[in-house]
Amino acid sequence: MRIMELKERVSKAVAERASLDGMRRSFETIEARQRENARRIPDLEDRKERLCKIKESSVGNEELFQEAVAVLRSNGFRVVLARTAEGALRAISDEVRDHRLVVKSKSNVTKELHLADHLKTQGVEVVETDLGDRIVQLAGCAASHPTGPACHMTRQQIAELFTGHFGRPISDDPAELTSVMRDEIADYISRAKVGITGANAVTAAEGAVVIVHNEGNAAKCAMLPDKHIIVTTPEKIVPTLDDAVNVTKLQTYLSTGKIVSSYINVITGPSYTADIEKKVYKGMHGPKEVVIVFVDDGRLDAEDKEAQRCIGCGMCLLRCPVYNIIGPVYGSPGHMGGQGVHLAGSTGKLDESVEGGLYLCTACGACTEVCPSKMDTKKGVIATRKKAREAKKGEVFDHTIALSSVRNYDNPWQVPRAQKARWSKGLDLKSTGDVLYFAGCSTSLLFPENASKVVTILRSVGVEPAHLGQAERCCGSTARKLGDDVLSREKAEGCFKDFKEAGAKTVVTSCPGCASALSRHKDLREKYKVDVKHISQFLGERMPGLRLAKLEGLGALAYHDPCDLGRELGVYDEPRRLIESVSGAAPIEMPRSKNQSACCGSGAGVRTGYPDLADAIALERVEMARASGAKTLVTACPWCVQSLRECQKGCGGIEVLDLVELIERSVRSDRK
After folding, report:
1. Out of 274-288, 300-314, 647-661, which region has the weakest mean confidence (pLDDT)?
2. In percent, how much of the chain has pLDDT > 70?
């Protein structure tokens, strides 16, 4: 798929985002059920911590993998190791040879393999037995959640689909919808000789496969046919059954809000009986053969195994600003959202990663905050962008221009360097000093008036800041997030050299992107003995000496946490204290704030490459502020200000202020 084709798909999804209202309501239902049942799982954080340790020690553990294979074989499983996707498809085709019907339960890896399509070319009908998967199979659309594949469809849409499928009127009564499909699926299962399932976990010590489900269909696919084929991946292996139960409990709670699923099947081999002369005979009330196919397909050799920590709970999708707008357009086959594009890229499938939306991620980090295994998907996506850029795959034209501009002009917009310093004209700023103000590209070029306001604020607390003038470089943030680590490091190191030559001990910036990009280079900070602070941090440390007049008539204020300032740098309290000092009241907390804050949609090149998507994400955030009763939305990032204002053009809306504007107004009032 060409990038322009992806852009068209994204634009179409943005324009038709109302079609995913059902998905969004379903996500809200999951979160509401989680809140309702939270008291019933008081050890949730302990379970997450245990999961992280399990995944840390087991993913990519060759010794554990070999132990599991040996024990599985001793238990009677026939184990197939498929190094490639093609090898897996051949192995499964061989297993279903001479059969024309296969029933299948939920499995992400089979979707990754496009197994149903492959078997269809072999003359085999594959029937999905999970209700949601069957619905999307009949509809010919993509699943929208790992455990709720059809949650984007209304019951009216499903009734229309079933009416066409069955050739008779089917009402939208959920009881009838489930009844007619249950009967059809039961008929297929009764006739099938081969059943295929996935696995939620595989235990090394016991040689057991654990399958979690609510409908009962997975148990029937595993028990009733003569042959049961389990298709899974090496990262599903955990040390013990206790560990597997922990995985399944977390997966159930986080994906549905329930404490436990309806069914947990533990399979340790083929069905057998020893009731005749105490000799073992296979195939009593279950299958005679159980085959487990481990699909490697780049996993074991991957240098970056972060994405393999996923347990498929889908919590990241509930928080992803991009997925919220465009749904399954974002992700790789079988794996949704940022984790999907990261997994594809880390296992050598860069084309799939790019086509799945590698450059759609805003790098907000909201997914990591709710991930039970603490996958750093943002870091993984940026690393995959680096690979794609080096391989010259999926370059977005607008991003290529931005990177070239950063290299040649020290800003992403091809603006001559001299213009970056225009805001400082007449301010009589010195070029050396202990405290240096680093305006950054966005503030100096998009909001130059705010740069001069920072100087006013700093002077009000007795600080005479230095400034580099037109020699100020780009911090490297844009380059890093677009996958050019070399350029990013080059720019950052140049900045620190400039800071040192200017005699700076503390660098203050009003852009969280700059603060984050410069702060992350611990070696450079230590080498040049320079501390980097966002203006809110710097002022927060000087609150007693900061004279702020309370402003009248501000109305209700809400505060939007910028992703780089909050989740990246951990700065949450200082902006709120400053707002309270100015307004006389704490800012309104929107439903998603602090480390759970929603993204403005502007980050990591999304506004540059996909402006309509950025606007849609930003508008969601503005609506949250409006719904909270705010008249003004304050934030502490120029990129956020731009995004939150741009999305409201032509439709009115609430006022959006940079924290700097609010404080400077207060400082001026105090002088009167």
Report:
1. 274-288
2. 99
Q: Flag whether pLDDT at 350 surpasses 60.
A: yes
- Tell me how far the alpha carbon of residue 441 is from its chain's centroid: 27
d(CA 393, CA 377): 20
CATH class of 59-295: alpha beta
Token pair in block for residue 99: 């059969």
For 390-448, the pLDDT digits (tens) are 988 877 788 999 999 999 999 999 999 889 999 999 999 999 999 999 999 999 999 99
**Which is nearest to 45 in space by CA: 330, 253, 268?**
253
Mean pLDDT for 157-178 is: 95
Token pair 């939208």 in the structure block, residue = 172
pLDDT at 484 over 60: yes
For residue range 58-89, list pLDDT tens digits in order.
Answer: 999 999 999 999 999 999 999 999 999 999 99
Query: How far lies 665's CA from each of 267, 422, 454, 633, 657, in Å?
Result: 68, 22, 11, 16, 11
Q: Residue 56: helix, strand or coil by DSSP?
A: helix
Neighbour count for residue 292 (Cβ, 10 Å): 23
List all residues 6 or more positions away from 360 whose beta carbon is below 8 Å from its beta carbon. 10, 322, 326, 330, 341, 606, 610, 613
**What DSSP character marks residue 169?**
-
What number does CATH give the domain 403-540? Answer: 3.40.50.1860
Would you say 487 and 505 are in contact if contact means Cβ atoms under 8 Å apart?
A: no
- Domain 549-671 architecture: 3-Layer(aba) Sandwich (3.40)
Q: What pTM, to 2 d.p., does this model score?
A: 0.93
CA 86 vs CA 92, 103, 112: distances in Å: 10, 21, 12
Cα atoms in the 13 Å half-sphere on the side-chain side of 202: 32
Name the nearest CA neighbour of 31 among 305, 249, 220, 254: 254
Question: Residue 653: which pLDDT band, with cuts at 50, 70 and 90?
Answer: confident
Residue 462 DSSP code: T
Quick check: do 59-295 and 403-540 share a fold? Answer: yes
Contact at 8 Å (CB) between 112 and 137? no
Sketch the domain layout of the chain as residue ranges. 1-40+313-395, 59-295, 403-540, 549-671
Q: How far apart are CA 129 and CA 108, in angstroms?
A: 14
The backbone torsions φ and ψ at residue 227, rounded to the nearest 5 degrees and listed phi first, read -125, 130
Neighbours of 398 (CB within 10 A): 18
Contacts of 296 (CB under 8 A, 6+ apart): 81, 82, 83, 84, 233, 234
For residue 135, which of 176, 79, 75, 181 has the smallest C-alpha distance? 181
The whole-angstrom separation of Cα 234 and Cα 299 is: 8
- Quick one: pLDDT at residue 670? 62
